[in-house]
Specification:
The protein contains 4 helices and no strands. The chain is mainly alpha-helical.
Length: 71
């Protein structure tokens, strides 16, 4: 895993995304590309790392129908 991907993985873990979910995303080339593109776009729009991670974590939880209060 490259340094950029490792950073995304760790930040998402900090927001309680389960490792099994992250492993599935990072093992799937399409899902990983969507994550990378989304992360880059949010960063380019002025969000910082934790803001990006929180937003993406919330989207992941919504997609897998898990609700955690991360705000």
């Amino acid at each position: 895993m490259n340094f950029t991907n490792l950073g995304m993985y760790q930040r998402l873990r900090d927001f309680d995304v389960p490792a099994t979910v992250l492993d599935a995303i990072f093992d799937n080339k399409y899902d990983l590309k969507v994550l990378q593109t989304s992360w880059q776009e949010m960063s380019a729009n002025g969000l910082r790392g934790d803001e990006v991670a929180r937003t993406i974590a919330n989207l992941i939880f919504k997609e897998i129908d898990i609700s955690l209060d991360l705000d």
